[in-house]
Automatic annotation (TrEMBL):
Pfam families the record matches: Trypsin
SUPFAM superfamilies hit by this protein: Trypsin-like serine proteases
Protein family (similarity comment): Belongs to the peptidase S1 family.
Keywords: Disulfide bond, Hydrolase, Protease, Serine protease, Signal
Domain Peptidase S1: 39-266
GO MF annotation, one: serine-type endopeptidase activity
Stretch forming the signal peptide: 1-23
The protein's name: Trypsin
Length: 304
């Protein structure tokens, strides 16, 4: 009996091991969505300013994952959103970050689209165990406003039962369609013990669980933020099915990786500072200095 159960368990885990990236387009073809069929147990975000840090990460223009804005040049997402099944980095030029709007199927006047300039995947990320499912993306400069802003990162894990929110455009049902509108749901942070009861040895260091019966993140929400009291505590990573009370969502723990994340932000900025220093003889004064960063990244007017 035990091995049967283990077998089923493995089977379910195998189904979800590709993580929570969005599958093939379906709703866009239909051009409509089911109002009652929301993010597992969630509700529509009415004002983008409630989730100004939420990013839709597009791959070949398809909304594949979520991410969060951590400063005006960097996004935080899941490693499995930017790598293939073997853990190899995907082509960064196929990605775009879309911020500032609520819908993925139409552009609005508040839609802002940015290219991904660089991708930093955690060295310990392993696609078969999904450990260290963390990546930092450098993007073209973002200008913050009411609908676009960064989220602070947690240095410590809040206590179990803390009321948190998840958000994204992912599947609204395990076998359903992605949502064209941004949805959110309240979930509770779970203790390590509770999480172990569901996932046993699949639960590795740096993984935390959050859930609530009937509420969960699902495919397409990967890389998006788990936010508690206005601070990002987790990154949507994986789970067994979605919204199953027996199997809460698993998140990469931000407190575990916050030092690594800060290091990538510095490393990324430093690499651009070096390029700036190289071209700086062509520029004088503060205004030119600011422009130099644009010049480096758009690679248009290097001889200015
Ligand atoms: C809408 O979604 C709900 C919940 O998943 C489902 O029960 C219902 O059949 C769906 N309606 C349509 C028209 O697809
Ligand atoms: C979490 O907080 C929200 C907003 O205050 C509240 O509506 C919701 O009922 C809370 N959820 C739980 C599971 O306690």
């Amino acid at each position: 009996m035990f091995s049967m159960k283990t077998c089923f368990f493995l089977l379910y885990l195998y189904l979800e091991l590709s993580g929570r990236v969005s599958p093939a387009p379906t709703y866009e073809e239909q051009g409509q969505f089911n109002q009652t069929n929301r993010i597992i147990g969630g509700q529509p975000v009415l004002h983008r300013s409630q989730f100004p840090f939420q990013v839709s990460l597009r791959y070949n223009a398809w909304p594949m994952c979520g991410a969060s804005i951590i400063d005006n040049r960097h996004l935080l997402t899941a490693a499995h959103c930017v790598t293939n099944d073997n853990g190899r980095l995907r082509d960064k030029t196929r990605y775009h970050a879309v911020v500032g709007d609520l819908r993925t199927n139409i552009n609005s006047p508040t839609t802002v689209i940015r290219r991904i300039l660089n991708i930093f995947v955690h060295e310990n990320y392993n696609p078969s165990t999904i450990v260290s499912d963390v990546a930092v993306l450098r993007v073209e400069s973002l200008i913050f406003n009411a609908n676009i802003n960064s989220i602070p990162l947690a240095a410590n894990l809040p206590p179990p039962n803390t009321n948190c929110t998840i958000s994204g455009w992912g599947l609204t049902d395990f076998e359903g369609d992605p949502s064209p509108i941004l949805l959110f749901a309240h979930v509770l942070l779970l203790s390590h013990q509770t999480c172990l009861q569901s996932y046993a040895s699949y639960l590795l260091g740096g993984m935390i669980c959050a859930g609530f019966p009937g509420r969960d993140s699902c495919s397409g929400d990967s890389g998006g933020p788990l936010v508690c009291n206005g601070i990002q505590v987790g990154i949507v990573s994986w789970g067994v099915r979605c919204g199953d009370p027996e199997f809460p969502g698993v998140y990469a723990s931000v407190p575990t990786y916050v030092d690594w994340i800060r290091t990538q932000q510095r490393r990324s900025s430093a690499s651009y500072a070096v390029i700036y220093a190289y071209i700086s003889p062509f520029n004088t004064g503060l205004l030119c200095k600011q422009a130099a960063f644009q010049i480096v990244e758009t690679k248009t007017c290097i001889n200015n």
